[in-house]
Amino acid sequence: MEHNLAVGLDIGTTKIVAMIGRKNEYDKVEILGIGKSKSLGVHRGVVNNITQTIQSIQQAVQEAEVSAEMKIEGVTVGIAGQHIRSLQHSDYITRPNSEHVIDEEDIDRLINQVHKLVMLPGEEIIHVLPQEYKVDGQAEIKEPIGMYGGRLEANFHVVVGQVSSIRNIGRCVQSAGLNLEGITLEPLASANAVLSQEEKEAGVALIDIGGGTTDLAIFRDGIIRHTAVIPFGGNVITEDIKEGCSIIEKQAELLKIKFGSAWPGENKDNEIVSIPGLRGREPKEITLKNLSKIIHARVVEIIEQVYVEIKNYGHEEQKKKLIAGIVLTGGGSQLKHLKQLVEYITGMDTRIGYPNEHLAGDSDGDITSPLYATAVGLVLDGLMRQERKKLEQKEAFNIENEEETPSEEVAEKPIKERRSFLDKLTERVKDFLDNAE
Q1: Cα–chain-centroid distance for residue 71?
Q2: Start and end of every SHS2 domain (predicted)?
Q3: pLDDT tens digits, residue range 203-251?
Q4: Which CATH superfamily does the domain covering 234-298 fall into?
Q5: How big is the CA angle at 254 (ends 251 and 258), to the nearest 5 degrees?
Q6: What confidence score (pLDDT) does residue 399 get?
Q7: Domain chopping of the chain, boundaries
């Protein structure tokens, strides 16, 4: 596989998407191929049938290979699912020598200390995201490297997940004959694909409504502040329609996509859809008003749970206000009148997020659908990872030849260090799988 190519693999509850992309000369991402398959063996974002998941992955990958006319070797995978939770934590270190400026190693030491936090059995820290630092009691420092101080403290956003679920995903990827190049948190991947830098600065909540789960990522001042995974998504809406109208799942899904609306007032009483009966039975007649009442009830429940998380972050405090409001993405965001309902419940500005933030201008309309936000985000993540590797190799080469200037070293290093926790996790999952074989 070429160097400047990356493959994102989005293992969702309803679909698995493999997407191949590369950077063009304008630093935008071109999507070369895409494959998708029905996801069997994943429930609420967690793998519960290894064999079926492997088959679904292979099918999606083959389709992407055919459409791009190339072989896929390594992939960047997203993790989400109901086992992900997050917490806030503060920690500090006392530096042995306050005559020296704070450097990379001090921050690493502080972060490694957070990694030692005691978790519930089977849980592990996936992500440690520094929020802001304090040096000798001086607060609100974004970048402490290069400052003097004896005591360095920081607030962290810590994301925790179940190790077994992450290893299962790694196992599926490897058994499908692919290399695991990277693991990323799905809400972060979707955010990369649909949010602009201005929104992340102003304060924004990204709500990614998938089939099995709804992911939330909150940004403010350009930093991720809060993440949450709510174990409901588009599937429970389909399930409700199926039960409420006594029809089969396939019909319920079609009804939702074609005629569904999150706002019952929009439908007149006399609008009726006729659904063919099973095996010679009479067709069923369903009023669109009833259909949207069923959808409305469940969507309100999902949005209210997300809004509780937004309030937990502290959106109601003046300092933490999310000025850019809410961005909805994922397949579930295509439901008619959903934007209006979200604005009505939360009172926050809302828009639908299309993953075209970093895509080349001539991208196919299908790819820029909210359905593919996570897959596009994973491709972006894979490309970033490759760029970082090149930087590191270049640095290593420079060090060997002793040609580098100190100022360059300081400029490029933070990029490397900030992102390496998930790389460590990827390495650990790989080691575990290699030893377990």
Answers
A1: 25
A2: 6-194
A3: 999 999 999 899 999 999 988 888 888 888 999 999 999 999 888 899 9
A4: ATPase, nucleotide binding domain (3.30.420.40)
A5: 140
A6: 76
A7: 234-298
